[in-house]
Amino acid sequence: MPSRPENHDPLLGELSEGSILRAILSRTPPGSLTILGPGDDAAVISAPSGSVVATTDTLVHGPDFRLAWTSGYDLGWKAAAVNLADVAAMGARPTALLVALAVPRDLRLSFVERLADGFRDACEALAPGCAVVGGDLTVSDVLTVAVTALGDLEGRSAITRSGARPGESVAIAGELGLAARGLAVLFGRFRDGETPVPVDPSRLGDGEAAAVAAQLRPSPPIGLGPMAAVTGATAMMDVSDGLALDAGRLADASGVTLALDGHALGSDARRALAGGEDHALLATFPEGMLAPGFRVIGRVVEPSGDGVLCDGEPVDVRGWDPYRDWDSAAG
Amino acid sequence: MPSRPENHDPLLGELSEGSILRAILSRTPPGSLTILGPGDDAAVISAPSGSVVATTDTLVHGPDFRLAWTSGYDLGWKAAAVNLADVAAMGARPTALLVALAVPRDLRLSFVERLADGFRDACEALAPGCAVVGGDLTVSDVLTVAVTALGDLEGRSAITRSGARPGESVAIAGELGLAARGLAVLFGRFRDGETPVPVDPSRLGDGEAAAVAAQLRPSPPIGLGPMAAVTGATAMMDVSDGLALDAGRLADASGVTLALDGHALGSDARRALAGGEDHALLATFPEGMLAPGFRVIGRVVEPSGDGVLCDGEPVDVRGWDPYRDWDSAAG
């Protein structure tokens, strides 16, 4: 929601880059590990472990989000959350975000102000101590939010995808399939022909509001990543493209097969296997160990021809992503 | 130049994200400080100082470059160089790049392969030991290259913009105005109406080829940033928007006036003051100190009403940037 009446909400094309950046940065306070924040050629962030974890992920209007469905606040929150999840999946604690915005001239100032609010609040809620330390603003016809997240391993080794060994447990922290259900609601209910239309909350049934929120403003369990590392996780990754696809990648990297238990995947195992964008944490633990917040969904077994089995059967689902091949630029 | 005949040079829209990423990453070897390179949720980079310098800068087709003038190789090189310069301007040594690409489906594979070559070669030439450690690939109608650069301070403090004190020397390392001259040649000579057309080298006069190269493939003196810090630089920044504008920012941050000597700015002082995109390093040094590769162009004096004087007169030039307000999307 804009914090001022629309007649005082200028188009970005009417403002200087400096004044837009000031409006954004006044909303994003420094974090506990920020040594030097925005305003110079570069930021300086503490890296107490003597190494830094770094990842980048971009949201592009069209393939990754639609303005008709997504507010500035939600977009900032989601862009932060998906990057924080990648840091957490290494077992690291997020320390800083850098945000590169490419914005159309006809976007309003309130939109990027709320975007900044979303970044700030996602950091506070999901990764306390992490903050926006730098950014870049440029003009583009296609709204694009490119985020880099940094993190610290707190003296531990990174938890990669390749450490799973037969006999270990396969475990999950976070939602499976809820964001995909939300996307299905958006595509099924809030379009006029091919054009997305704003979400009317009164038309959302039981559970649908939570599903739509999971899609638009995901809350991955960032703090559980470092906790899994402390507890002895042997491999970890975040589930962004669907459990089946991502578990297959972990199995591949580790040279094992993951044998999942369908009953552990909830009432809709197929959606849990196929649905992406929840950014749950998938991890493997030695027998008898399990980090708080994780639940066991299967076992690591000797490699068979298939990377992932569910109830003994090969899993053949493609991560469901209607955005991917959907070319309509409207909305 | 594509490394294969065009009939074996597929459109990106025909390929999977994974195969494009593999083609890119096979061309960018790890650096000396890369602990874990691409392929997992995040990279891990050594940060021997216990802190990390981080900056992000984006190049968008249209405002920042035109495909008619810029090859994939040049684009990769420039996107690396402008980010490396921001790290160097803090007195830090670049350690890693993260590259977020948003690419149109009708771009050819050879273009992004050459882009990767440009990133690799710019790192090798300008910042040995630095490497591409991670990235992201997404689809967009507008070709966008968002880069984050990381660096290490090697145990020193960061050199900010705010440390200049009256009595010190103002010095420069690198070109002033050459890239702007190159841009003027492109705009003046290589357009069909408003549409950019490819550069024909045979039409470039004496010195023009070097100017065009400075615009399309800049070589800022990255290694001199850490050297300036070692030598005792009190303030430093990279000159991206023109000397007059950027020196004004440094003067502002330091609460001083920079009194420049017009004779020290070369044969075309006006272009040296106004022209951006050379990414020269502007630094101040205590009396009697000067890092190798730097030349004195003036003195720091007590603050007057103006941030920057040239031969005693206030400088009133706007960084010259014909891209900025040029809306034509062609080329």
TrEMBL record, chains A, B:
Mg(2+) 4 binds at residues 41, 55, 86. Its EC number is 2.7.4.16. Mg(2+) 3 binds at residues 41, 86, 238. Pfam families: AIRS (PF00586). It is an enzyme of class 2 (transferase). SUPFAM superfamilies: PurM C-terminal domain-like, PurM N-terminal domain-like. One of its GO terms (molecular function) is thiamine-phosphate kinase activity. Mg(2+) 5 binds at residue 241. It catalyses: thiamine phosphate + ATP = thiamine diphosphate + ADP. ATP binds at residues 135-136, 161, 240. Mg(2+) 1 binds at residues 56-57, 136. Pathway: Cofactor biosynthesis; thiamine diphosphate biosynthesis; thiamine diphosphate from thiamine phosphate: step 1/1. Substrate binds at residues 64, 277, 320. Belongs to the thiamine-monophosphate kinase family. Catalyzes the ATP-dependent phosphorylation of thiamine-monophosphate (TMP) to form thiamine-pyrophosphate (TPP), the active form of vitamin B1. This is Thiamine-monophosphate kinase. The lineage of its organism: Bacteria, Bacillati, Actinomycetota, Actinomycetes, Micrococcales. The gene is thiL.
